[in-house]
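Long-time lurker, first post. I've been practising inverse folding by hand and with some scripts of my own, and I keep getting stuck on stretches where the structure tokens seem ambiguous. Below is the full token string for one chain I'm working on. Before anyone asks, I'm not after the true native sequence, just a reasonable design that respects the backbone. If someone could post their per-position residues I'd love to compare against what I wrote down in my notebook.
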């Protein structure tokens, strides 16, 4: 594992990106997660507890049955029923994860997990990539609020250690790790996939054969590259040639054909 993270080096890279992206951006550009490979290493060495336990029941069937007689109005939680998970759920700095969001998770290897809606297509995509002789590796997937908080706190601490005041440290940290409650990883619909032979989360990912194949074919399996280079001002997040988001096959094909990012696509649907 190569340790390439350095807060100031990162800040410099970020500043360069901001310049490249143009300074007219209205949204603060946030790098959605740490590029620190040490955090991956930590995830690998400290696997999270079995994730099936995190499958959350949305309502008590008995309760639902009795209430259906008295009131036709469904329980408020029903919108969060895993069987009705909104595959177009938009989670970003302006749209935090909905209150009481629940998701049925299916564990993958190495302590990873994704929403049950995404798992079959994800497995098919990875298997087909492997059949091409490629070695894709899911290095990040579902994160609990606590996990996101821990990643964020760790990032804040790194800036505090550099002598930053708390407010400044928090602002800098948010460029690298999404503020808890605003990370798409908390939906269970997002995965970071890297090449087994290059596990560093930087732009070098896009040059790997794995990433080139995924970028070309992900839509066939219902995934989109969520934070494209040419949409940074709209997504508010720097280019991430490793972060894929499940939206379902039909939608993924439409998004690919339209050239829109998820924010634009959702906005267009609402019109
Ligand atoms: Zn990601």
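-- Answer (accepted) --
I ran through it position by position. Result:
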């Amino acid at each position: 594992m190569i340790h390439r993270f350095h807060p100031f080096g990162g800040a410099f890279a970020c500043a360069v990106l901001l310049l490249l992206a143009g300074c007219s951006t209205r949204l603060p550009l946030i790098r959605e997660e740490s590029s620190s490979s040490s955090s991956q290493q930590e995830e690998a060495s400290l696997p999270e507890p079995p994730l099936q336990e995190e499958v959350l029941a949305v309502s008590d069937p008995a309760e639902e049955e009795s209430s259906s007689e008295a009131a036709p109005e469904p329980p408020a939680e029903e919108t969060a029923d895993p069987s009705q998970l909104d595959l177009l759920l938009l989670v970003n700095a302006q749209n935090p994860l909905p209150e009481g969001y629940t998701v049925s998770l299916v564990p993958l290897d190495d302590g990873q997990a994704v929403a049950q809606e995404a798992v079959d297509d994800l497995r098919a995509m990875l298997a087909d990539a492997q059949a091409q002789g490629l070695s894709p590796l899911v290095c990040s997937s579902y994160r609990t609020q606590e996990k996101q908080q821990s990643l964020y706190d760790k990032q804040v601490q790194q800036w505090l250690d550099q002598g930053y005041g708390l407010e400044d440290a928090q602002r800098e940290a948010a460029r690298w790790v999404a503020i808890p409650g605003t990370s798409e990883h908390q939906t269970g619909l997002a995965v970071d996939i890297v090449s087994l032979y290059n596990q560093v989360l930087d732009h070098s990912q896009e040059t790997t054969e794995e990433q080139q194949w995924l970028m070309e074919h992900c839509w066939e399996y219902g995934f989109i590259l969520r934070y494209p280079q040419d949409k940074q001002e709209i997504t508010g997040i720097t280019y991430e040639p490793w972060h894929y988001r499940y939206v379902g096959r039909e939608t993924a094909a439409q998004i690919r054909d339209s050239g829109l990012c998820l924010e634009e696509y959702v906005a267009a649907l609402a019109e």
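A couple of notes from the structure itself: Residues 32-33, 140, 185, 190, 192, 243 surround zinc ion (CB under 6 Å). The longest helix spans residues 145-161. Happy to go over any region you disagree with.
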